[in-house]
Amino acid sequence: MPVSSTDSANAVEFDRVAKNYAIYETPFDRFRELLCFGRRSFHRDFQALRDLSFSIRRGEVFCIIGENGSGKSTTLQIVAGILRPSAGDVRVSGRVSALLELGAGFNPEFTGQDNVYLNASILGLSKSEIDRRYRGIEEFAEIGDFIRQPVKTYSSGMVVRLAFAVAINVDPEILIVDEALAVGDTSFRHRCMRRVHELRARGVTIVFVSHALGEVKAIGDRVLWLEHGRPVALGDPDTVVDSYLAAMSEREGRAERQLVHSFVQQPAVAAVHTIPNVDHRHGDGRAKILGIAVLNEYGEPLHLMMPRTRVTVRISLRADESILQPVTGFVLRNHLGLDFSQVDTDHENRRLPAMPQGAAYTVDFHLDIPELYPGAFSLSPWIADGESICDWIDNAITVQMGRGEAQVYGYIQLPCRIELHAPSHDTEHCVA
Question: What pTM was computed for the model?
Fold first, then answer.
């Protein structure tokens, strides 16, 4: 079905759009179907989109949310012209710049510089126009001399830096962003979001897909909620996102209640409301660290850790907005300010239940302390919603590591068991 450009007041229009994929059980089934010349089918149809209609106004920031497999990426790929709908009409008006799958459109054998010129030319820029924009692209990407190296040598973060730098510097009229920024580091994500706001102020239409619902609320004019390829709700960000969060919490059902039982229905403990030190604090503020304490085995405040003992790090949290995927933990730093270790609920496979607005949790981390070199260690607690940091406090509490029975060389004494074996016969024959 057609995907056309128009001079409509809307940048994008979907009219009863559907998208089907043929699913084959084995590669041989695809071959068998080709041999039948359409007389017999060896596949089943999967409907990624069903009867989807919406419009995006020029200059609007239009966000799409939904669970994995809901049709978000398929919708963006149709807008970008990568896919064609199976049914319905799609009308797109304006130059589209898409930041979809990581590194999509990049040739891994080419250098970053070559890929800049290749991608920009595909988007319709002449060489002289790319020459004028190249310095801005290079400065925004901040990958240094790697821009003259093959893309196959890049880290995932470097790829997304370069891809975003190209996408925003080709004067797009419609910018499409699909979760790509989740790969970048925090400072780069913040810089990208600032540039999104700048493009929005210039009247660029932005179509944005993200699981970071705080970002959706912050920049979206309207939000479309998709489920199994169908629209569930379309409207202002606060209303749609809150409805989505409520539905996701309800859907967790029994499994979610079991998680709540395993985490919350433990013997009651007093929440911590003290933060001994704040060197630096940042985050989007949707949830907060209320307090942190390091306790001994009797639940008493601990200031001196001894090797081969058990301590508890207690962190109390509060959600000031709904948090769909809460993750909490802390970074352990040594006296040189180097990150020594990190502990968090995700890495320990203990998923926290969603936090409705106003909910408060206290999480205990029980640690068996190895033999570390004597010195001061600080703990920096944090809480996030998925990839989005809500609150982070640098060096909130400091504890001293005591000296054990043995001298520790380096940073840590590794647990070790030593065995002595009798010489083998082969060894004896080799001895002169």
Answer: 0.55
